[in-house]
Specification:
This protein has about 170 residues and is mostly beta strands. It has two helices and nine strands; from the N terminus they run βββββαββαββ. The strands form three sheets. The chain has a four-stranded antiparallel sheet with strand order 6-5-8-9, with no helix packed on it.
């Protein structure tokens, strides 16, 4: 891999550009998409409806989209993905500590993995700019052999009536 930087003219149009690199007499090309930055006009928050859920019950998240001027993003489309992963630090909290010898993160850290995809779907926000997403318990969570503490992450993309997309997530 290589790294570098260059500055486009402020007048350069948005679109797909091709970068050609020559290394040891061989040419390599790569496509780069240049787009104008546009500040989002609304925010998306994702919060669980409760702090804890039991193993055999659905997990609920509230997704809320609100314009920065205060109005709800009523009727906006919602696309979501729910992932679950084991909270190993809850399973072995006394045994897990920072691994200084390896120079790495704390032992038991999940590694930032999304985990297992449990559910995905689409919905529409109500007149308050909200939707409740219910995630059924995953098969692995209901397995008696599986660890009892799971973390569920919900990743949401909201698209308003003008086609603008904003992402949000919560666990």
């Amino acid at each position: 891999s290589i790294a570098g930087a260059f500055t486009l003219s402020g007048e350069a149009p948005s679109g797909t550009y091709t970068i050609e690199t020559k290394i040891a007499g061989e040419s390599y090309t790569s496509a780069v998409v240049v787009a104008a930055y546009r500040k989002p006009e609304f925010s998306v928050t994702v919060t669980p409806t409760r702090k804890r859920f039991y193993r055999d019950e659905p997990i609920e998240f509230r997704v809320k989209a609100e314009y920065y001027f205060g109005a709800p993003a009523a009727g906006a489309n919602l696309k979501y993905y729910a992932y679950s992963r084991t909270d190993w630090s809850a399973e072995f909290s006394d045994e897990w500590e920072y691994d200084e010898d390896e120079g790495g993160p704390p032992l038991g850290w999940s590694g930032g993995s999304y985990g297992t995809l449990d559910a995905e779907g689409e919905s529409r926000l109500d007149e308050k700019g909200e939707a409740i997403v219910r995630i059924p318990p995953g098969e692995s969570v209901n397995d008696e052999e599986s660890p009892s503490v799971q973390i569920v992450d919900l990743s949401a993309t909201v698209t308003d009536s003008s086609g603008r997309e904003v992402d949000g997530s919560g666990e």
